[in-house]
Design brief:
The protein contains six helices and three strands. By secondary structure, the protein is mainly alpha-helical. Helix 1 runs parallel beside helix 4 and helix 1 crosses helix 6. The longest helix is centred in the C-terminal third of the chain and has 22 residues. The radius of gyration is 17 Å and the shape is elongated. It starts with a strand and ends with a strand.
Length: 157
């Protein structure tokens, strides 16, 4: 699912002459799920707080049935995403370059479904598999931070 940063009062899908607040972030919903999985590696309470936040947005009634957050909620979401890289580093799961040992890749992939550890992937690339997930979460956090800075609301559709 894609994340959209929208001006207040603008509905998703409206054909307007003005440019969007930010370009849409494709797969943003998947990246939020990746963030939950990363937090589960190091802090289950933080993972549950993020999961509950996302579940509440899905459960709230909106005219089109898409989860959406106003600017204040976007800021809270950014806060829930912040710190995962440092926590993974502090726990020893990643090194300073976000790398993992290749012998841990398959075990971690069972806990972080967004990791690419397919057999066709060279073994040397496996040390980057978790970093790729971390980079996606970093990207969604950056998108949300920019949306909050512009005062936009965010919608997942």
């Amino acid at each position: 699912m894609t994340l959209y940063a929208l001006e207040t009062g603008v509905e998703l899908g409206e054909d307007l002459d003005r440019p969007p607040v930010l370009p849409p972030l494709e797969h943003g919903g998947d990246y939020l799920a990746d963030a939950v999985a990363l937090w589960r590696l190091v802090d289950n309470r933080r993972a549950e707080a993020l999961r509950e936040f996302l579940d509440r947005a899905e459960a709230e009634e909106t005219p089109d049935g898409h989860p959406r957050w106003d600017t204040a909620h976007v800021r809270k979401l950014v806060g829930l995403l912040t710190g995962v890289e440092a926590a993974l580093l502090d726990s020893g799961i990643i090194d300073a370059n976000w790398m993992i040992s290749t012998d841990r890749a398959h075990d971690l992939a069972q806990r972080v479904p967004g990791m690419d550890v397919r057999p066709v992937r060279p073994a040397a690339d496996l040390q980057h598999a978790l970093a790729e997930v971390i980079a996606r979460v970093h990207g969604v956090r950056t998108f949300l931070t920019r949306a909050a800075e512009t005062g936009a609301r965010v919608e997942l559709a």
